[in-house]
């Protein structure tokens, strides 16, 4: 005997159940595209690294070849003479000075010529500016020695009571001074010329004795050391 099937009292109306919201479609995952991007980035970084290494090797090889061919050396400077014509301080703390300054410049290179702009000369003692002078522009050929002369002077320069220079002048002892030369130089190697580069020459170890009356004294410059520094300016800093 066949069983009878009784239809359910709940009929399907075709509407979704409100208790279960419709699911959103998931984004399609494409791993192959990400792999391609990473591969391109790695290749780009690798080529940049290789290019930088090649440029560094080329620059090092060029610098080594230049050094072997030309054996470059910096020009040297030495204080030849510093005569003190006047070095006194008035009762109102006004400083008056006059120096006859001679410096010897040497170019030890066989294949390099130096061209100097005008040279600014400054002398200071205990942090006090005691005179300024100027040397005209000049050229130093290969294996050349040049003597340069100028007058360094100051008139009516104020000196503070607490300055060490004032006490040194009152004691009538020898006074230590520092000489600074500032200029720009360009280098010529064959037909090649470089741009002008600022340099500073600092000479320490000089001691002067203030003269009495019209007598002229000569500074002691036997142990003077002059250092040549190339001054390269990067943005706001000078190296």
TrEMBL record:
<dbReference type="GO" id="GO:0098542">
    <property type="term" value="P:defense response to other organism"/>
</dbReference>
<feature type="domain" description="Late embryogenesis abundant protein LEA-2 subgroup">
    <location>
        <begin position="102"/>
        <end position="203"/>
    </location>
</feature>
<dbReference type="InterPro" id="IPR004864">
    <property type="entry name" value="LEA_2"/>
</dbReference>
<keyword id="KW-0472">Membrane</keyword>
<feature type="region of interest" description="Disordered">
    <location>
        <begin position="1"/>
        <end position="26"/>
    </location>
</feature>
<dbReference type="InterPro" id="IPR044839">
    <property type="entry name" value="NDR1-like"/>
</dbReference>
<keyword id="KW-1133">Transmembrane helix</keyword>
<keyword id="KW-0812">Transmembrane</keyword>
<feature type="transmembrane region" description="Helical">
    <location>
        <begin position="44"/>
        <end position="70"/>
    </location>
</feature>
<dbReference type="GO" id="GO:0016020">
    <property type="term" value="C:membrane"/>
</dbReference>
<protein>
    <submittedName>
        <fullName>Late embryogenesis abundant protein, LEA_2 subgroup</fullName>
    </submittedName>
</protein>
<dbReference type="Pfam" id="PF03168">
    <property type="entry name" value="LEA_2"/>
</dbReference>
């Amino acid at each position: 005997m066949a069983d009878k099937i009784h239809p359910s009292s709940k009929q399907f109306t075709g509407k979704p159940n409100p208790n279960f919201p419709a699911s959103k479609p998931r984004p399609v995952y494409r791993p192959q595209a990400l792999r391609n991007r990473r591969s391109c980035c790695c290749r780009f970084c690798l080529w940049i690294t290789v290019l930088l290494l090649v440029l560094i090797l080329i620059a090092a090889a060029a610098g080594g070849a230049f050094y072997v061919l030309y054996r470059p050396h910096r020009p040297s400077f030495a204080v030849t003479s510093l005569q003190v014509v006047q070095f006194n301080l008035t009762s109102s703390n006004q400083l008056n000075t006059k120096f006859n300054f001679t410096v010897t410049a040497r170019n030890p290179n066989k294949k390099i010529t130096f061209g100097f702009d005008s040279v600014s000369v400054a002398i200071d003692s205990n942090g006090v500016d005691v005179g300024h002078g100027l040397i005209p522009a000049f050229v130093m050929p290969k294996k050349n020695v040049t003597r340069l002369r100028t007058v360094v002077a100051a008139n009516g320069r104020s000196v503070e009571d607490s300055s060490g220079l004032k006490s040194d002048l009152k004691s009538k002892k020898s006074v230590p001074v520092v000489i600074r030369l500032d200029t720009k130089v360009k280098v010529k190697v064959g037909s090649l010329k470089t741009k002008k580069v600022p340099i500073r020459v600092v000479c320490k170890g000089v001691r002067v004795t203030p003269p009495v009356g019209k007598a002229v004294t000569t500074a002691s410059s036997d142990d003077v050391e002059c250092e040549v520094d190339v001054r390269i300016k990067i943005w706001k800093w000078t190296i």
